[in-house]
Specification:
two-stranded antiparallel sheet, about 200 residues, 2 domains, elongated, about 5% strand
Length: about 200
């Protein structure tokens, strides 16, 4: 004889398991959200800023070369010229061929920005500036609770995300089985009801 009580108990266990897995998924989601918002450790923040300074300053030689190309290709040009106005001859800037050292850009007609000057300073004084930035960051107020380093943070996020995907697949598989059982149970109950009805009901007199 088919043991419906045993089947019912199995289904209840399956539903409880789904409930536990959903709770784990929710816990994982909260942790992922926390990992995305926790501040970097100070040392990692210092490394991030230092790398940005190195990367920003790395193209300064190319910018300076672009600025000096006008004098390389036209050696008779000069960033200075003699002015004879208002007194004895004196050297003044040649506005026709200005020389921008800290403000060197890809094209001479481009307007320099504060970042243009930063590039030059990062290249020329990078080590001194990075030491100053390190000192400033170490002395600044900072949250007491910080997150793990970025490699560990990304690895944990990836692990929890994969775990949630696996749990979701298990839940869907279990729920599909429960739904299939519900269809079977409904069919069995329908057959039971059909058996209770007489095949040839008596004809009323």
């Amino acid at each position: 004889m088919f043991d419906w009580l045993k089947v019912k108990s199995t289904l209840e266990s399956a539903l409880n398991e789904c409930k536990k897995m959903r709770a784990t998924m929710e816990k994982n989601k909260l942790r992922i959200e926390e990992l995305r918002k926790l501040p970097l450790p100070k040392e990692e923040l210092i490394e991030l800023v230092s790398k940005w300074m190195d990367d920003s300053g790395s193209d300064y030689p190319q910018l300076l070369q672009a600025e000096l190309n006008k004098f390389v290709s036209n050696p008779m040009d000069s960033p200075q010229k003699y002015s004879y106005q208002n007194g004895p001859a004196r050297l003044v800037e040649n506005l026709g061929t200005p020389l921008r050292v800290l403000q060197a850009t890809v094209h001479s007609n481009m307007q320099p920005t504060t970042k243009t000057i930063e590039r030059a300073l990062f290249y020329m004084l990078g080590d001194q500036l990075k030491a100053g930035v390190r000192r400033a960051i170490q002395e600044m107020e900072y949250p007491t609770i910080v997150g793990p380093t970025m490699p560990r943070r990304l690895a944990e996020i990836d692990k929890l995300t994969k775990e949630n995907s696996e749990l979701q697949a298990q839940i869907e598989e279990i729920e599909a089985g429960i739904n299939d059982f519900g269809v079977v149970q409904a069919a069995v109950e329908s057959q039971k009801e059909a058996r209770k009805k007489p095949i040839n009901p008596p004809t009323p007199v």
